[in-house]
Design brief:
Distance between the termini: 27 Å
Strand content: 25-35%
Order of helices and strands: EEEHEEHEHHHEHEHEEH
Radius of gyration: 18 Å
Largest sheet: 6 strands, mixed
Number of strands: 10
CATH topology: Rossmann fold
Helix content: 25-40%
Strand order of the largest sheet: 6-7-8-3-9-10
Structural class: alpha/beta
CATH class: Alpha Beta
Number of helices: 8
Length: about 230
């Protein structure tokens, strides 16, 4: 089986000379289509940097990211943006919704960037809001929604373009434990029902235990399962 995502010998550092700090060191991993993976590790371990590399928001110093065995190494910022919009859905801890837009308009943004006409954008956004249980909040703005509702809007936005992979960076981090559990259950259901592949950064071991498997990072390196346990 060809993996949906491969990270091959990836390294990344910041700074120069004596001030250079290695953040990722020779990281390799693979994720198969339909998996729900937890990416775990302490603060400063390199989780977010790795997610940025996978999401084509930053470039590695060496190594590569491959999608379905094709190198994801666009040469321009515009090419990176197009590839991201085609391949990847993002869910962030802080939601990243636009306050001036309604829920459905926020969900429809990836389709706008693809040039989809307004009527189709709205229909697809409303259908996705219904799937995450927010059809009755479609015309509300973010400030009119609870934290859990805003995260569900963000999840609908990540999925509306039918991405191959969803990257979720601490998606329950700004939520209370009950609401966080609800969002996790929704992620699990969407993974199962839609077959979407999810890579989720989390500090929460209880949430990680609900995923198909866990990838542990310490000091910029993937830790073998025997050591991670």
């Amino acid at each position: 089986m060809v993996p949906i995502l491969s990270v091959v010998d990836l390294s990344k550092g910041y700074g120069a000379g004596d001030q250079r700090v290695a953040v990722l060191q020779h990281v390799s991993l693979r994720i198969d289509a339909g998996e729900f993976i937890a990416l775990c590790g302490p603060s400063g371990s390199g989780k977010s940097t790795l997610l940025n590399m996978i999401g084509l928001l930053d470039r590695p110093d060496s190594g590569e990211v491959r999608y379905e065995n094709a190198s994801a190494a666009p040469t321009t910022a515009a090419a990176s943006a197009r590839l991201r919009n085609d391949l990847i859905g993002f869910v962030f801890q802080s939601f990243h919704l636009l306050g001036r837009l309604s829920a459905w308009e926020n969900v429809a943004l990836p389709l706008f960037h693809r040039g989809v006409k307004r009527a189709e954008r709205k229909a697809r956004a409303l259908a996705m809001l219904d799937r995450v249980g927010l059809s009755d909040r479609a015309h509300h703005r973010p400030e009119q929604l609870s934290g859990g509702q805003r995260q569900r809007v963000a999840l609908a936005r990540a999925l509306v373009g039918e991405p191959r992979l969803v990257l979720a960076d601490e998606p329950t981090g700004n939520l209370d434990s009950v609401t966080g559990a609800q969002v996790m259950a929704l992620l699990r259901r969407l993974n199962r029902d839609l077959g979407v592949t999810i890579l989720m950064v989390t500090h929460d071991r209880d949430l990680a235990s609900q995923c198909d498997r866990m990838i542990e990072i310490h000091d910029g390196r993937v830790v073998p399962l025997a050591e991670a346990g």
